[in-house]
Every structure is written in structure tokens, then in C-alpha cells.
Amino acid sequence: MILVTGASKGLGRAICDRLLSKGIPVFGLARNIEGVPFPSMPCDVSSYDDVKAVAQRLKKEGVKVQGLVNAAGIASMNLAVTTPPDVAQNIIHTNLLGTIYCCQLIAPLMLRHKAGSIINFSTLAVALGLKGESIYTASKAGVEGFTRSFAREMADFNVNVNCIAPGPIDTNLLKGITSSQIDKIVTQQIIPKQFTPDAVSDLVEILLDERSHSLSGQVLHVGGA
């Protein structure tokens, strides 16, 4: 079973749909799971207690967790000097601490089997240093650093940890960003085109495959920087 956060919409939902289409069972986490057509549980990843409750339930039910995809995330296009403190805290708590909490609490369910894959999510904005995304970029830069170190910690247990850093993908995360802003970002990519959730799902499939276990601690850019 693959555990996917942010499973109710956006990239998380697209990844779940892809895995299910391949016959791979998934378990979704989201703040609101109303209408989610696969096994799921309400969870705010920025809450350690929420994530702990998920881990305890899966352990109690004897679920074999083979992978974790940390797709939950939020963004706010704004200059750092005009970003309210509660917004800044919410971004850091969800994107960075949420990823850390899920890794901390779900990884032990893989360690007992000495096998598994963890995929975290960053953004091309880290490599490009995009204007107007400094706090979002900071949260994701933290995810990248955490991923590299955590991969070393998990290596002895045959659990690989990687990070996907997409460019602008057409999901709700881009709400409020104009097409001209998106075009400007895309032109800075090595491959100057806007990619779809399908492209990200392709990469998730590859990283979840046991044959990719020699690849760990990497930050993989969709579009290139």
C-alpha cells in the first residue's frame, strides 16, 4: 500500500488515480476527504498528533506500507515583507514540518520490512530563486535538505528517499498566478514547457519501483533548472 498526502486534489489526487489505475492500492490523507473514492483518513499533516493517529491506525491494522508520497503542500505568491506571520507559519508548518512529521512517523512502518520508498515534494522555485515566492521557496528548500539527510538515515534499512521538484503544474496551487507569470517561469526551465500532473505521476511510478532503489537522496527536477 502507498500512503499519499494531499490526496483529495491536485498532484496528490492525480498520483492516487495513476497508482490505482496500475492496480496499486493507496491510502489517502487530506484535511477534507469528502468525496474521495478510495481508502482515506482526514489528516492535517502540519499536526503531529494527526499524523501520529494515522501511523497508529495503520500499525494496529497491520497494514504493510510500501511507500509514502508527501504531496500535501500550500503556496502563497507574495513578497516576504508583505506576508502576514500567520501565513508564513502555515506555509512552513504544512510544507516543511508536515513532510518531516510524515517521514518520522510513517517510516518506522517500512523499517520493519526493510523495504520502501519515500517521495517528498519541492519546487523548481528553489533552484530558480523565484521572486514573490521566497517563503514558499524557503519551506521547500528545507524539504530538499531534509530529504538528502534523511535518505542517508534510511539507507541501512533499504528505504530510499527522493524529492521531486516540478515547475509550474496546472493544479489549484497555481490559483492566483497569471498566465504571463507562469510563462515567465517556464522560459527559465531547461525544457521550456509547462508539464502536467501525468508527467509528475510518471516520475512517482519510477521512484516507487523497487528497481530504482539504487537512486536515493536525489532532487529530481521536472522541466529542469
Please describe what this structure looks like.
The protein is built from 7 helices and 7 strands; from the N terminus they run E-H-E-E-H-E-H-E-H-H-E-H-H-E. The mean pLDDT is 90. Helices cover 44% and strands 15% of the residues. By secondary structure, the chain is an alpha/beta fold. Strands 3-2-1-4-5-6-7 form a 7-stranded parallel sheet, with helices on both faces. Helix 3 links the parallel strand 4 and strand 5.
Could you describe the largest sheet, including whether it forms a barrel?
Answer: 7 strands, parallel
Q: How many strands appear in the DSSP assignment?
A: 7
Give, in order, the helices and strands. EHEEHEHEHHEHHE
Contiguous low-pLDDT stretches (5 residues minimum) are: none
In percent terms, what proportion of residues is strand? 15-25%
Write down the overall geometry.
globular
Please tell me the overall pLDDT: 90
Describe the strand arrangement of the main beta sheet, using strand numbers.
3-2-1-4-5-6-7
Global structural class: alpha/beta
Distance between the termini: 33 Å
* Helical proportion, percent range: 40-55%
Number of helices, where a helix is a run of at least 4 consecutive DSSP H or I residues: 7
The radius of gyration is 17 Å
Q: Keywords for this structure?
A:
225 residues, seven-stranded parallel β-sheet
Task: Give a quick rundown of the structure.
The chain contains 7 helices and 7 strands, in the order E-H-E-E-H-E-H-E-H-H-E-H-H-E. By secondary structure, it is α/β, with parallel strands linked by helices.
Give the SSE map.
Elements: E1 2-5, H1 10-21, E2 26-30, E3 40-42, H2 48-60, E4 67-70, H3 85-111, E5 116-121, H4 124-128, H5 134-155, E6 159-166, H6 179-186, H7 197-208, E7 219-222
Parallel strand pairs: 1-2, 1-4, 2-3, 4-5, 5-6, 6-7
